[in-house]
Each structure stands twice: as structure tokens, then as C-alpha cells.
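For this section, I looked closely at the sequence of one protein beside the C-alpha cells encoding its backbone, which the following lines show:
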Amino acid sequence: WATVRRLGGGDDMKAAALMSSLADDRRDATFIRYDLLVDINARFPRRKPQFHPQMFFGQLENILVVHLPPIPELELEEEQVLLLAHIHRCETTLRKLHTREVPVYTKMGRHEVVDMSAVQCVVGRIPPVPGARPQRWAILDRSGTLQRSYYVPDE
């Protein structure tokens, strides 16, 4: 797929791999914010996993649709369809800009595939100042509290 829309009147998100090259004066709807659960004990294999939600930014490269047939060994009784997002993550840091902290990045990081439900919204980007070093892109997330994931752990 080339485009997916968030339910409830949300954003149209586009897959970068299937888009024609963008002109300088067009919006780039391929950069997104997504939320994942991260194990803060991942570096300590003997500790019990402790998951916390964390916000990420990246470019939506592809939208993948996977049809799974019934698989009794996995207790999958009927066919299921998975909607997945192939994302090229931005290596972000927070930078103070006037009264708020803004995520910025200078390079792209790893590629990852996540459930499409983790993708929250489209974000804007502000290009770096010509000649500035390092060349930092600022990320503009105008969703506020409207597009936030909530994780309720099992007790």
C-alpha cells in the first residue's frame, strides 16, 4: 500500500518507497511519530522485563499487509491480517528552543518493522539552517495530547 489513514479523522500517512520524488514546495507526509514499549531492563538479561512507553520518530518506508493462514501450533484458528509499518528511525535528541524542547536529528538510524497501530500521526520537519554545523532537522509534532498511546500493564 502507498497510503494509510488513521481512524477517527486522522492523518493520511504515505509510504516513502512508493512516492514519487517530492518537489521542494510539497509537504512530505512520510515522516511519522510512533510509540513502542521498551524494556528498560533489556541490558540486564537476568532481570524481569519492565516495559515503558517511548516515543519515536521516523520515515514510513513501506506499509505491509501480511495474511496469516490458520496455524494450530500457534493457536491461530482462523486467518488473520496484519498491517505492519516498515520505518527508518530518526536518531533524535531533545534541544531547547525558546520555552520548549524540540526533537532534532542529524542522521537516520535503524530500520524496524512495527504494528501499524503503533503509528500515531504525521509530523512536520524544519530543515537545517544553511551552513550550520551540525545539520539538524527539527521535528514539528502538532498533535499535542490528541494522538497519544496509553499502556495499561496487566496486574
Observations:
- The longest strand covers residues 51-68.
